[in-house]
Write a sequence for this structure.
């Protein structure tokens, strides 16, 4: 593999790259390679990494009484009306 040297990186940019890499659990080199690949269209699509826009962000934020209220409402809605199934 080839090596490329990038000159003229300001200290603020260097620090931001290091911080971002650390937060993502990557080396600075890996972060920069990932950024370049993504920008140039070489990034491989990850399988099974779909993000859903559902209620996951609410998970664990309800109080016990709120949870019971919601669960009771859902359970009432799940009841089968025998007259409709005859």
């Amino acid at each position: 593999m080839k090596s490329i040297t990038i000159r003229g990186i300001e200290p603020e940019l260097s620090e931001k790259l290091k911080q971002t890499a650390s937060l993502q659990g990557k080396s600075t080199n890996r972060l920069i390679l990932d950024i370049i690949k993504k920008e140039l269209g070489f990034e491989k699509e990850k399988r099974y990494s779909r993000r859903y826009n559902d209620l996951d962000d609410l998970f664990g934020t309800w109080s016990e009484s709120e949870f019971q209220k919601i669960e009771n409402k859902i359970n009432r809605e799940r009841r089968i009306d025998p007259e409709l199934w005859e």
Remarks:
- DSSP finds three helices and no strands in the chain.
- The chain has a mean pLDDT of 87.
- Residues 11-45+52-85 form one domain.
